[in-house]
Write a structure and sequence with these properties.
This is Transcriptional regulator, ArsR family protein. The structure is a single chain. With 115 residues, the chain is α+β, with helices and mostly antiparallel strands. It has one domain (3-114): Winged helix-like DNA-binding domain superfamily/Winged helix DNA-binding domain (Arc Repressor Mutant, subunit A), CATH 1.10.10.10. The protein is built from five helices and five strands; from the N terminus they run ααβααββββα. Helix 2 crosses helix 4. The longest helix is centred in the C-terminal third of the chain and has 14 residues, at 101-114.
């Protein structure tokens, strides 16, 4: 992770609304409108923060459809652990994600296919 990326991640995690988005989406997947209500911030602020959080792998996005066929994105926090390490030589942020069953199944199928 570059110094600029590290600084950006720390800034994101230092933002109260970004942390609230992570906390809410750890409970369940939520749309931007739901996050706007739950976090008491504007939809524009939600989108700015979800874009940043997603770019660093802190949020997963998924397209969903309502009964009328309209589509919208939902967000789910995926990190199981965020570790900030600082030493004399450098500083770093490590984001650990839980392995999802679908990913494990895909990996298994790929291994079987390769044999």
């Amino acid at each position: 992770m570059t110094d600029e990326e590290l600084s950006d991640v720390l800034k994101i995690l230092g933002d109260e609304h970004s942390r609230k988005i992570l906390q809410e989406t750890m409970k369940r997947s939520m749309s931007a409108d739901e996050l706007s209500d739950a976090c008491n911030i504007s939809p524009q602020s939600v989108y700015r923060r979800t874009d940043k959080l997603s770019s660093y792998g802190l949020l997963d996005t998924e397209m969903e459809y309502d009964e009328d066929g309209h589509h919208f994105q939902t967000y789910t926090a995926d990190p199981t652990q965020i570790v900030i390490s600082i030493s004399e030589e450098n500083a770093d942020v490590t984001i650990s994600k839980r392995e999802r069953m679908a990913d494990r199944f895909s990996e298994f199928i790929n291994q079987v296919r390769d044999q």
